[in-house]
Backbone:
């Protein structure tokens, strides 16, 4: 009897351990967990020949960590105010994993090019930007153009109109009505192809769209050798902070006034700063890295804008709210452009 009881206890223990292993390790396939990431120091990221960063303090770009959910991490995220649970389709835009990674890398490359161009331009150093066209990076599976447009297509025209940037292209499409028939002309494998379909309603908006993710193919060249290596990080949101680090090194000015300054925001070739995702988590990452100031993209919070914003707050509003609760010693600074950021930095002396 004693041996049987002991054996039963061992079996029960084994079953419990096995169940725990399954609970911890089985992926919850349709979900991602988004958490505060890191705030890397930009000093080792940017290398400019003859222009090192000798000043105290640091500029930091901020990241959001994305991981596929296990049952255990899903439960933990339910009770963690700094984590959110997202569907895989919402995170990847219905792309497969490799396509999503490739897209983030393209975004990062574009962010670096725009940052270099703005920093050199404002520093009055020789820089050249050559526009080579608009490329299709991905197509929404719900789009009427799905399976017709391919990633890698080069856009020639839309309804006969030609464009000088992807922003110009998007604005043209937004001016049209949902259901409008459009003819898109693209180059693919050195052949010109025409595709005619109707515009559909973009998810979460009342706007017409084709359902494609675009990238400007800009080639940047400088006389002063420069290398920007962010490692495995992807996406467009580090553009603003890259540009400030590059500008500071080029001018050899202590534009951060020896402070630890984190931030986020896209930047285009005209120096405009754009909003990003996950700014509440980036505030936490900046706090944990010891940032005293945080540069956040600013847009005017109109009713129409707030309707589509994350948590119905602009980047700046959400950043201020998060900092007030979790990082009260860190000041959030709103910025709309590269020049606006430089002016804001002058005021932190």
Residues:
């Amino acid at each position: 009897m004693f041996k049987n009881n002991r054996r039963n206890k061992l079996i029960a223990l084994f079953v419990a351990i096995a169940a725990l292993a399954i609970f911890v390790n089985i992926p919850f396939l349709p979900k991602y967990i988004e958490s505060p990431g890191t705030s890397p120091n930009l000093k080792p990221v940017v290398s400019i020949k003859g222009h090192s960063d000798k000043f105290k303090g640091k500029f930091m770009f901020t990241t959001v960590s994305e991981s596929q959910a296990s049952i255990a991490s899903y439960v933990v995220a339910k009770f963690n105010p700094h984590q959110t649970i997202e569907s895989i389709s919402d995170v990847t835009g219905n792309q497969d994993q490799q396509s999503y990674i490739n897209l983030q890398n393209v975004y990062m490359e574009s962010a670096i090019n725009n940052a270099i161009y703005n920093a050199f331009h404002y520093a009055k150093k020789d820089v050249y930007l050559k526009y080579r066209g608009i490329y299709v990076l991905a197509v929404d599976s719900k789009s009427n153009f799905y399976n017709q447009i391919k990633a890698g297509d080069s856009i020639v025209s839309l309804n006969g109109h030609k464009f000088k940037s992807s922003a110009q292209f998007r604005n043209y499409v937004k001016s049209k009505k949902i259901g409008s028939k459009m003819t898109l002309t693209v180059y693919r494998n050195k052949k010109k192809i025409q595709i005619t379909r109707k515009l559909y309603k973009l998810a979460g908006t009342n706007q017409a769209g084709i359902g494609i993710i675009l990238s400007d193919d800009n080639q940047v060249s400088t006389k002063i050798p420069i290398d920007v290596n962010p490692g495995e990080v992807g996406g467009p949101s580090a553009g603003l902070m890259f540009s400030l680090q590059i500008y500071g090194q080029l001018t050899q000015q202590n534009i951060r006034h020896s402070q630890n300054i984190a931030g986020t925001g896209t930047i285009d070739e005209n120096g405009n700063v754009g909003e990003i995702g996950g700014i509440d988590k980036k505030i936490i990452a900046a706090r944990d890295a010891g940032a005293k100031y945080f540069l956040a993209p600013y847009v005017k919070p109109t009713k129409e804008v707030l309707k589509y914003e994350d948590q119905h707050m602009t980047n700046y509003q959400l950043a201020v709210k998060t900092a007030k609760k979790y990082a009260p010693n860190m000041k959030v600074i709103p910025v709309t452009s590269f020049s606006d950021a430089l002016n804001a930095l002058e005021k932190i002396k």
